[in-house]
Amino acid sequence: MAKKKETSIYDIIKGLNQAAANAYDGALTEDGEAIKVGLQREEGDPILDHRVMDGFKVKIYGNMMCLTYQSEVQLKEVYANGFEGEVDQRLTDIVSWLKKEYRKVTGNSITLTEEGEVDVMVQSTSRIRSWIQAKKHYKIGGLDKEMHIEAESKDRVEKNWQSFLELGGWKGKRPKNDSRPKE
Question: How far apart are CA 40 and CA 52, in angstroms?
Answer without folding.
Answer: 6
